[in-house]
Amino acid sequence: MNPTWLDFLAIPLGRLLKLIYDFLHGAHIPGSYGIAIILLTLIVRGLLLPLYIKQIASTSKMAEVAPRIQEIQQKYKGDQRKMQEEMLKLYQETGYNPAGGCWPLLVQVPILFALYYVFQNPLVYVLGKSHQYVRDLVQGKAGYAITQIIINEAQKLGLDMHFFGINLAQKELIVLPILSAATMFLSIWFSTNSQKRFNPQYSQSQSNAMAEGMNRTMMIFSPLMSYFIALQVPAGLVVYWTVTNLFSILQQFIANEVVYKKLKHKKEEEEKKKQLENQAKMQQGKDGVNKEQEKLGKESSDEDLEKQGQADQEKEEEQKREEQMRKKELEKLKQQMTRSQGSSKKKKK
């Protein structure tokens, strides 16, 4: 009955439970304490919803990167340092955080322990009595007698903790433990089947096959553990745990219908975008080749024209030289004829 390090969490949870209980009890709703626990569970799970959404995204991303992780492990199995470097690069490239799926569980554990104190000692955490008040009340008592004194005192102070005939401050050995185990089994089974449904490559890799084997083991041992733990704790905590399991099933259903489908659609859009980018790059490559060919063809035509021009010029110069030679030969013939005519006249004289 001493303060615990979880009082910072147990006290606000107990006060919130009392606030909900007062509202329901004031409205004369039967089983107000049990309904208040259910509503408190829904509020806690609602506050944890962002973490759960991140967990879903992390699980989906894990299935995507698992084949690439296996490739890296196989390729660098003899070089651990290089393997770690490549793994870090992969995580940075894909935005995958291996610890991203653990946060809901890590946050859930202290809440669960804090609620254990709330349901075990409602005088302190629900009704706001001091630890010294409870110590004085149970002084000299031990075991079950302490629990019974606390229940009776809480009842005197107006806190009715009965729910469908079950006192939620005491242990319940039949109905609630079975419900806890059954809902735990359904939650794990539904989650496992959802992973198979939305991650087609889930069972194609060795690591996912190992994960599936672990899930099968959890599907057997977790409900059994849930059942035996439920036999040892106040029934109020078992109600919280059972509602948590049901809420997890509902969350998984909503995730399947909304989040996973949205992620799947986003993935398909990204693949289409990559295909379009690849097609655009291929088209740019073809255009570049065509332009290069056109450029080479144009340069070739210019060179041919230049050669043709040079040939025409040479031909024209050759014609000019031939014309000049013909003119020179004509002048020589004229001179010879003139000289022959002059010599003939001299002979006649």
The parts where pLDDT drops under 50 for at least 5 residues are none
Helix content: over 70%
The geometry reads as rod-shaped
Q: How many whole angstroms does the radius of gyration measure?
A: 46 Å
How much beta, percentage-wise? under 5%
Subcellular location: Cell membrane; Membrane
InterPro entries: YidC/ALB3/OXA1/COX18, YidC/Oxa/ALB_C, YidC_ALB_C
Organism: Caldicellulosiruptor changbaiensis
Pfam family, one: 60KD_IMP
Features:
349 residues, mainly alpha, 11 helices, 2 strands, 1% strand
Structural features, described:
It is built from eleven helices and two strands; from the N terminus they run ααααααααββααα. It has 349 residues and is mainly α. It has one domain. Strands 1-2 form a two-stranded antiparallel ribbon. The radius of gyration is 46 Å and the shape is rod-shaped.
Give the structure's gist in a few sentences.
The protein is mainly alpha-helical. It contains 11 helices and 2 strands.
List the helices and strands and how they pair.
Elements (H helix, E strand, L loop, with lengths): L6 H20 L5 H16 L1 H27 L4 H15 L8 H18 L1 H4 L5 H7 L6 H13 L5 E2 L2 E2 L7 H24 L7 H25 L4 H114 L1
Antiparallel strand pairs: 1-2
